[in-house]
Design goal:
This protein has one domain: Nucleotidyltransferase, domain 5 (2-Layer Sandwich), CATH 3.30.420.10. The protein has 257 residues and is α+β, with helices and mostly antiparallel strands. β1 and β2 form a beta hairpin. The protein has a 4-stranded mixed beta sheet.
Length: 257
């Protein structure tokens, strides 16, 4: 008579042995993006080139030409004047780009020139954020735990979200911000009075030490790997506050952020 219990036992032993042969994966070997893909899908051209890299290269070249032309127009190529020009450098930490939602965790901006180095700076943690979708919240928390470890529901920050927007716009678009009653950093009347170089300027006059495009907006320098999240995080921050800010000077209006 056939012994079914022995047969089942042998099968169980084989399965156990097969399981033992599987390669062991340590926690440190598990990549976040392998199981929790955070970010936008990578699109490639027929030549296998990343579309974003190609777009970024085109944007960089276009911005380089615009900035160079603006510098030459404003300084006439004078080296000493170029050294006085002020530039903005921004950095951002996020909770990952989850299904098109990019929550800002920390933001920092430095203003510098080639003569004095960093002349102004600010930074702040950003939050708290409420994410209703459990899966998206867990993915955002996972990203935080694996990177900066800033809590999603942080209760204490250096400034609230609305103040952060004013700090950013007050530096990126000081002329526009001033027309709306927003003066921050080096572009407050008090700071301009302290700096002898600004004593001859009137409120609203074009500052000779900053570069702007035809819409009175400044260029901002950021790391290539932060570019997409920088854009997405700022856009989500504006939407979360209900802002529809296009950056145009509106005369005879009382627009407040």
């Amino acid at each position: 008579m056939y012994n079914f219990s022995s047969r089942r036992r042998r099968r169980s032993e084989h399965r156990t042995e097969d399981f033992r042969r599987l390669p062991f994966v340590a926690d440190d070997d598990v990549e976040e993006d392998e199981f929790f893909p955070i970010g936008q899908p990578i699109n490639t051209t027929s030549d296998g080139i990343d579309c974003f890299d190609q777009l970024f290269a085109e944007k960089f070249e276009g911005d380089r030409i615009l900035v160079r032309q603006a510098i030459m127009n404003q300084t006439d190529g004078c080296v000493e004047k170029i050294k006085e020009l002020r530039f903005l450098l921004a950095a951002v930490q996020t909770f990952g780009n989850v299904d098109g939602i990019c929550l800002m965790a920390e933001y920092a901006m430095n203003e510098f020139n080639l003569k004095d180095g960093v002349v102004d700076r600010f930074s702040t943690l950003v939050g708290p954020w409420q994410v209703a979708n459990d899966i998206q919240r867990h993915r955002a928390e996972f990203h935080s735990n694996e990177t900066h470890r800033i809590p999603l529901s942080i209760g204490l920050t250096q400034m609230d979200k609305r103040q952060l927007v004013m700090e950013i716009l007050g530096r990126c678009e000081p002329e526009i911000a001033r027309s709306q009653g927003i003066c921050v950093g080096l572009y407050t009347e008090e700071m301009e009075d302290i700096d002898d170089r600004f004593n001859r300027l009137y409120v609203g006059d074009k500052n000779p030490y900053i570069l702007t495009d035809e819409d009175s907006r400044r260029w901002i320098i950021c790391l290539k790997q932060e570019f997409r999240n920088m854009i997405a995080a700022n856009q989500h921050l504006a939407r979360s506050l209900g802002l529809d800010y296009i950056g145009k000077i509106q005369r005879n209006t009382n627009v407040k952020l």
